[in-house]
Structures are given as structure tokens and as C-alpha cells.
Amino acid sequence: MRIKELKHTDSDNFFLLAGPCVIEGEDMALRIAEKVVDITDRLRIPYVFKGSYRKANRSRLDSFMGIGDEKALKILKKVSDTFNVPTVTDIHSPEEAVMAAEYVDVLQIPAFLCRQTDLLVAAAKTGKIVNIKKGQFLSPMAMQFAADKVVEAGNENVMITERGTTFGYQDLVVDYRGIPQMQTFGFPVILDVTHSLQQPNQSSGVTGGMPQLIETVAKAGIAVGADGLFIETHENPSVAKSDGANMLQLDLLEDLLTKLVRIRQAIKA
Q1: Per the record, what are the reactions this protein catalyses (predicted)?
Q2: Within a 13 Å sphere around the CA of 67, how many CA atoms are in the beta-carbon half?
Q3: Domain assignment present for 6
């Protein structure tokens, strides 16, 4: 599987999907992309810029959803054109698959929609790479059927992302056995580090998180052989409009990735 404009594919590093949870504006997206591109170029990490053009799954009606679909998608395209990197964004309906495919390189299926057949088929038919997030309610082996829907619709460009499993009402856990199990399907497997540390269903209606464990979860993911990592990052998570409680502060990213590259080199030695 090849992602257009993906650099450093000969480095034998893990690849990285990283960026803000949601596109809050053009300047913010370009600043974050510039910083991450600089870091990943120096560390030779294949990099895909991530940003949701709209957040459909929110706890409360008054939660921020986006700056406008077309406006945000055009910003994603500008990031790609400016820094020569591929981009990934979430989609939520078959109609969105067609629309988003005009602007981005990878279409991401949210975890809570991973069983939606019409959505998976529509994403497949765009010809784009389809990254399916494992539902918090599914076993790793059950994701074979989600991947099969995309393949049977004529598209073998599939990635699968682990993002934690529901553990009670307000917590998630990562079963690291799921990474090698899902790799047996023959597709790249990604660990979503930051969403695995969410604490959903808080009484305030605002999702919590444990960002202090980002390094721990990421190190474990690389140690067990994850093909890629997904990390949401923001210049100032405390003022982020979505998922600020579990995002990584941008100025901490380089140190984390440097450590992870060393772990990758050690297990490949």
C-alpha cells in the first residue's frame, strides 16, 4: 500500500498520523503542520497530517463541531500542498466520503461507525486509503469483517487503528495483544495513543483524559510492533476546542518521537 507523497518510507521507522483533533483555523493548522514536518523530517518518520474537518460525535449540543466543512477541507488541502505531505480526516456518512476524497489522501472511519456497511463501502469506492478505527466495543479479531467490507467493495488499501476498549463507563484500556492479532489480516495496524487515554462520559459532559500516560502507551505500542502511531497534538491543549484533555502538547512531541525511534531501532536490531 502506498500513500501519495509519504516521505521517508525507506527509513524502517513507524509511520505517524498526527495533528490537531479538529481544524480550528488555517494559521493554527499550518503552524502545527510545519512543526511536525520539521521533526519528522529530521527523525525520518513517514508523516501524515491529521485534522478532522468536522466533529460529529460530541457529548453536548453546545460542543464545538467545526468552522465549516468546505473551509476546513480546503485548509487540509493547503497543508498538503504547502508541506508536500498526505492528509487524513474523519468521515461520518457516505456523502461525506465523496466530498472529503476531493481534498485528502486517507479517509478515516470513526470507531463508533466501524460497522456501518454503507459508510465503509462508500469510502472504499473513492479509491482512497481507508483507515478504520476499531470500535471500543469490538474484539480485535472482529475487525476482520470491517476490513473485508472495504476489500470486497474493490479497495485493498486498508489500515486498522486500535484506540482502546471500553472498560466500565468512564475509561478505556489497550489490549496490546490486539496489535499482532490484527496484523494477521495483512494490513498496517496503527495505535491511537491519545484517544486510548480518553475518559468519556464524564458528568460534566466534557470528555476527560490522562495525557501524562501518552509516553507510556506510545512506548508500549512501538515495543509490540505497531506499524504506525496516531497522536493528536496542539500548541495549547488547555484551550483546544475538542479533545484537549487527552492531546499532547506540541512542544513535547519531538522528545517523545526521539525516544520512540530509539525503541523501534532496538526491536529491529
Answers
A1: D-arabinose 5-phosphate + phosphoenolpyruvate + H2O = 3-deoxy-alpha-D-manno-2-octulosonate-8-phosphate + phosphate
A2: 18
A3: no
